[in-house]
Specification:
By secondary structure, this protein is α+β, with helices and mostly antiparallel strands. The protein has 3 domains: about 100 residues, Immunoglobulin-like; about 45 residues; about 80 residues, no CATH class. The strands form 3 sheets. A 4-stranded antiparallel sheet has the order 1-2-5-4, with no helix packed on it. It is rod-shaped.
Length: about 270
């Protein structure tokens, strides 16, 4: 029986790369008897397809030169290295046990585990950046709204200051004007508590602060009554003064905005 060397000269495998599709060529030179060749992936679960098989056989006397060229493509490339094998197959394959393995390297592809970790890190980074953008936008919007509210309140207080600093104790004499806090005196004013039997019910207003606290707040409107000069107009200005100055004892200290409307009585024609 002849040794393997008498049947086989050498096994040559060459690897060529093209732009879109890869080509593998496996050659066996000077072999007798002839064999068939096959390309396969070492791991069965490798997503690789071998196409366009080109089998070439050349006889030189009693020996053969055999080559197999295939194109290969991946359905998905998730590994940076794939091992493929060229081996002898057919009825004479067991005589030679010919096999050669080739590692296909893909430096631009990360391994599945590393790619998964990288994807997770990328997603977390994007989420963090989006959260920072949203928080920054919310802070900017809140600052703008707060800034507008503060400017509005500041404008209101400046307007109200003109009102409560221009109180005339004696009507129609404008050369002497005082702050309402200097001239306001309590007493003589009543407020309506309700209607019973078609008649209004009145009670004495012991303090101007009662208008904005206690039972008075249970109704949608307050009706005050008093003789001329008893301080009905200055009572409202006193409330504005307390709010603008943020007096600690005032029930209006925690109120954000007060809108003061001054009504004018028109005589009937």
């Amino acid at each position: 029986m002849l040794s393997y060397s008498a049947f086989l000269r050498r096994l040559i495998c060459s690897f060529q790369m093209k732009q879109h599709q890869d080509v593998l060529t496996c050659s066996v030179l000077g072999i007798r008897p002839k064999v068939a060749l096959e390309w396969r992936a070492v791991r069965e679960d490798t997503p690789i397809d071998f196409t366009q098989h080109q089998f070439k056989e050349t006889q030189l006397g009693d020996v053969y030169d055999i080559s197999l060229t295939v194109n290969f493509d991946f359905t998905q490339t998730t590994q940076n290295k794939v091992t493929v094998e060229c081996r002898a197959v057919g009825e004479n394959a067991e005589l030679f046990n010919l096999s050669m393995k080739v590692d296909l390297l893909f430096p631009n592809v990360l391994p599945t585990e590393q790619g998964s970790d990288t994807s997770t890190i990328a997603i977390i980074a994007v989420v963090v950046i989006m959260m920072m953008i949203i928080i920054t936008a919310a802070v900017v919007i809140l600052c703008r709204i707060r800034g507008k509210a503060e400017r509005f309140i500041k404008h209101l207080k400046a307007k109200y200051e003109i009102f409560y600093d221009s109180v005339q104790p004696i009507p129609y004499i404008k050369d002497r004007m005082y702050c309402v806090d200097k001239v306001f005196v309590e007493g003589g004013i009543e407020y309506m508590t309700g209607i019973s039997g078609g008649h209004a019910q009145w009670d004495k207003l012991s303090s101007y602060q009662e208008v904005v606290k206690g039972n008075c707040l249970k109704t949608k409107r307050q009706i005050l009554e008093g003789e001329p000069g008893y301080g009905k107009s200055t009572l409202t200005l006193q409330l504005l003064y307390d709010w603008c100055k943020s007096l600690s004892k005032s029930p209006l200290r925690g109120v954000d905005v007060i809108v003061y409307l001054r009504l004018r009585q028109l005589e009937r024609s």
